[in-house]
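Work Package 3 (structural annotation) set out to generate three-dimensional models for the target panel prioritized at the project kickoff. During this period the team completed the workflow that converts sequence records into C-alpha cells, so that structures can be stored uniformly alongside our sequence database. As a representative example, we reproduce one entry of 284 residues exactly as it appears in the project archive.
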Amino acid sequence: MRNSVPDRKILQKLILLLIVCIGVFPLCYFVSVEIGIAEAAPALSHETETPGASFDRYVENVAFGVGEKLSFDINYGFINAGTATMEVARLVEFENRPCYQIITRARSNSFFSTFYKVEDRVESIIDAVGLFSWYFEKNLREGSYRSDRKYSFDQRNNLVVYKNDTIAVAPFVQDALSVLFYVRTQPLEVGQSMFLENFVDGRTFALEVRVLKRETVTVEAGTFDCLVVEPLMQTVGVFKHQGKLKVWLTDDYLKMPVLMKSRVIVGSITAELTDFELGELDEF
C-alpha cells in the first residue's frame, strides 16, 4: 500500500505526457502537410512547359486575392492541439513583378504551450500573373527544436538558389505552399489527375493530385459542397505516409480548403476550417 501513491503519481505523469505528445503531434503535422504536400516520388514531369518555354505565362485567378484569411483548428481525434491560419497577406513587388505574399502560421494552445510550445511560420512569394514561386521561407519553433530555411527561385533561368547550391528546376516550378494556390485556380474533374513540378528543401519532385469524388462536409465554418483531392506523395514532413492525405476543396470557383485529413499510425489528424475571410480579386 505504501507504494500505491508514488505509483499513481508516476502513472498520472505518464498519462499527461502521452496527452501532450498526442496533442502536439497534429499541430506540428499541419505545417508538415503544407511543407510535405509537395513531396511526391521523383518522376518525369507531366507539365506541358519545356525548358525552351517562354518565361511569361498568364493564369486566370478568380479563386483568391489579398485579404483572404483561413483559420483552422488542428485536432488529433477529439483532442485539440492548437490553431493555424493561411493568409494572402498583401500584394508586393518582387523581381519587378506583382506578387502575393502568402503566410501560414501554426500555434499550440495555452495548455500544450506549457509543455511543448509550437509557433511555426511559412511564407511564399507567388507571382500574381503566372502563379509560380519566387521565394520560400519556413521558420519552425517546436519545443526546443529550431529550423530556418529559405530559398529563392530564378524563374527566368529555371534555377533555385538553396543554401550554397544553385539547382536546375523545371519552368514555373512551385514550392510547398504555392502549389496549393495554383491548384485552386485550375479546373478539377472527378476521376482525373493533374501533375505539377515542386521544389522542397533541395529536391525536385513531381506531384500528382488526384480528384477522387464530390462530397458535402460540415465543419465549424459551415456546410460546403466539396471536391475531395488526394496529393500522392512519399512522405508528409517527417512522418511516413502510412495513410492517405485527403483535402476537401469547395466545389466552386474559390476551391477553398475546408478540411484536411490524414491517417497516421494510430488514428487520424484533421485541420478543420473554423472561419474565413474572402480576399479581393485583382486584375493584371
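The radius of gyration is 20 Å.
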